[in-house]
Amino acid sequence: MSAWCEETPSVHGSGGPVDTKLHRIAEKARKEPQFKFTSLYHLMNEELLRECFKWLRKDAAAGIDEMTKEEYAENLDANLTDLITKLHRMSYRPQPVRRKYIPKPGSDKQRPLGIPCFEDKLVQAGLVRILEAVYEQDFIEDSYGFRSKRSCHQALRVLGETVENGPVNHIVEADIKGFFDNVKQDWLMKFLEHRIGDKRIQRMVKRFLKAGVSEDGSITVSDEGTPQGGVISPLLANIYLHYALDLWFEKVYRKNCTGFARIIRYADDFVACFQYKRDAERFLEELGKRLSRFGLEVEPTKTRVVEFGRYAAQNAKERGEKPKTFDFLGFTHYCGTRRDGKGFRMKRATARKKFTAKVKAFKDWLIKARTMKTKELWKTAKAKLSGHYTYYGVTDNMPGIKRFGAEVEKLLFKWLNRCGKRGCLNWQEFCEKLKLFPLPKPRIKVSMFQNP
Predict the structure, then answer these.
(1) Given 3-state DSSP classes, what are the helix, strand and coil percentages for the chain, each rounded to the nearest 5?
(2) N or C: which end of the chain has fewer CB within 10 A?
C-alpha cells in the first residue's frame, strides 16, 4: 500500500449551504452518469475553504514556504479573503512541492513525497470536496482506496467473503510499476473532462500537475506523474485507475470471461479473483496491454497467477507441493480450514516483508529518540504499538501481532540498558517494570466475519 498523502485526503462537511449544493451535485451525478458539469468552480468560496482549513492536519510537514497551519490561522480571515480573490481572478498559481523521501517498507529504497505549501493544500482540499461529489457516484463498489467510509479492512473482508463463498480457484496478484511516476497528465485531463466541463476547475487541476518539484534548489516540471503527498493526489489517482482499469474490467473484460471474475482495488494495489485458470491467465496478458495504453506497466516480478481457493490445498498436496499464497495490503493470504478442521477458510498473517519493515522502522525511531525523556518515549512507543495492533490485529493474525509485540519489548529492553549503565537491567527486572508500566496487549481488533 502506497503512502499517498500526508494530509486528510478528504474533508467532511458541517451541514451548511455548500454541503447542500454538493449533495445536489452528487444526486445529479448519480442519476445522470453521462452528465458533464460546467459550473462548479463558484463553490470554491469562503465557507468551503474555511471548512477545509478546519480539517487539514496541524502537524503536517510544511512546503517550500515553511508556512504552518498555526501561522496561517493568525490572519485567517484576511488570508482567506485574499486567497478567494486570487482564485476567482484565476491569478492563483500553486508553488512547487518540496521533495521529501521516506523509507519504503521492505526495501532499502526511499519513496519520494511531494509536500505542497499550506495554501496549496487548502485549495486542493476544496477541489477534492467538489470533485468527490461527482466521482463518488461513478467509482465502482470494489474500489476502496482513500474514499469516504471505506478502508483497507473492508477491502480485506470483501476479498475474504469472495474467496470463501464464491467459485474462486485462481487469484491474479498484480503490482503497477512506479504508478505515481508514470501517470500521463494528458490522459488524466482527458479522463477528468468526461465529467468535468468547468474550464476553471480543469485549469486549476492542471496548474497543480505542472507546479513542479523543488529539490536541492532546482525545480523540475514534467508531463508525467503526480507527486505523492498532495491532498488531491489520491483522488486524481483513483480517477486515473477508474478509467484505465476498473471500467475496462467491469464493462469489457469480465463480460468475456467464461466463469466468475471480480477485481478488488485499494489505490494502486489490487487483486483479481477468477473461477477458471484460462480467464486469469488471459487477464494477466491483457492487463499489460491495457495499462500500457496509459503509460503504465506491471512489475513482472510481483505479478502472477496463483491457484487459490477451496481446492487449492488438496490439488497442491496431490502434486507434492505446498499451496500457494499471495500478498495484499500488508497481509499474506493462505489456504486454511475452519476451526473444526472441516471446510475451507482463507486466512491472513502479517506479510514477512511488512513485518521486517515495521520492526526496522521501530528500531530506527528508537535510535532517533535516544534523547527523549523516558516518560515521553514510553508514551509514543505505546501509541506506535496500538497503531500496529489496530491495523494488523485482524482475525487469524494473533501470532503475527504477538511476534511484533515481542520484538518491540526486546528493542525497548536494549534501549533502557543503553540509557543507563550497560547491563543495569536484566530481563526479569524489565518484565517487572512492564507490570508497572504496561504496554498495549496484542489482541484481535478487526473481525473478518462481520461489518464494523
Answers:
(1) 50, 15, 35
(2) C
**Residues contacting residue 322 through CB under 8 Å, at least 6 positions apart:** 316
Question: pLDDT per residue over 426-449, tens digit each?
Answer: 899 999 999 999 999 999 999 998
Q: Map residue 298 onto helix, strand or coil.
A: strand
Q: Other C-beta atoms within 10 Å of 325: how many?
A: 19
User: Alpha-carbon distance 213 to 219, whole Å?
Assistant: 5
Cβ 329 vs Cβ 159: under 8 Å: no
What is the full DSSP assignment across 310-354?
TTHHHHHHHTT-PPP-EEETTEEEEEEE-TTS-SEEEEEEE-HHH
Residue 111: phi and psi, rounded to 5, are -100, 125
pLDDT for the residue numbered 11: 43
Position 366 pLDDT exceeds 80: yes
Beta strands in 186-260 (DSSP E): 213-215, 218-220
* Per-residue pLDDT, 105: 64
For 247, how many CA atoms within 13 A lie in the half-sphere containing its CB?
A: 10
Q: Is residue 33 over pLDDT 90?
A: yes
Amino acid at 141: E
Q: Could you count the other beta carbons within 10 Å of the beta carbon of residue 270?
A: 26
Alpha-carbon distance of 213 to 64, in angstroms, equals 10
Give the separation between CA 413 and CA 426, rounded to whole angstroms: 8
Please name every residue paired with 215 in a beta bridge, in sequence order, or none if there are none.
218
C-alpha grid cell, residue 163: 474467496
- Enumerate residues 6+ apart whose C-beta is below 8 A from 269: 1, 2, 145, 175, 328, 329
Indicate the length of the chain as a whole number: 452
β partners of residue 420: none
Least confident of 9-13, 73-77, 131-135, 363-367: 9-13
C-alpha distances in angstroms, 75 versus 50, 430, 442?
13, 50, 45
For residues 219 and 316, which has the higher predicted lDDT (pLDDT)? 316
Q: How many Å apart are CA 225 and CA 25, to the nearest integer?
A: 29
- pLDDT higher than threshold 80 for residue 183: yes
